[in-house]
Amino acid sequence: MNSQAETCYYESKAYSHLRLEGGSAAGARTMGRMAQDLDIDAMLSRFRERARAVRQRGLPPIEGPERKRFMDQARTDYMDYAIIGDATATLENGILTLQIDLRPESARS
């Protein structure tokens, strides 16, 4: 593995429409404003809250294969939200970098 394997660069689907503007001046202005307005700690807190919500939500009255699909999706949703919620974020030169340590607690320094 290379050093990038320990660093996760995350681009939110919520902002993917801004990529359509490519290198245009309007796109650069929009992304610049977004970077200035972004509260990284609040964003990570929202991901932690989403992870808790997924973990606490009940099962709807479904059975069989649908129930298994629902439970599998809930497990995936929880993992995704929890991973992002545990990230260490930096915003440098307009680039949001989320660093995620996937090592077990015992292996962390």
Can you give a write-up of this model?
The protein is mainly α and 109 residues long. The protein has one domain. The protein is 48% helix and 11% strand. The protein has helices at residues 25-37, 40-56, 64-85, and strands at 7-8, 88-92, 95-99. A 3-stranded antiparallel β-sheet has the order 1-3-2, with helices on one face. Strand 2 (88-92) and strand 3 form a beta hairpin. The longest helix has 22 residues, at 64-85. It is extended. Residues 1-28 have low confidence and may be disordered.
For the structure shown, list the relevant keywords:
about 110 residues, mainly alpha, 3 helices, 3 strands, about 10% strand, disordered N terminus
Fold blueprint:
Elements: E1 7-8, H1 25-37, H2 40-56, H3 64-85, E2 88-92, E3 95-99
Antiparallel strand pairs: 1-3, 2-3
Brief synopsis:
The protein has helices spanning 25-37, 40-56, 64-85, and strands at 7-8, 88-92, 95-99. With 109 residues, the chain is mainly α.
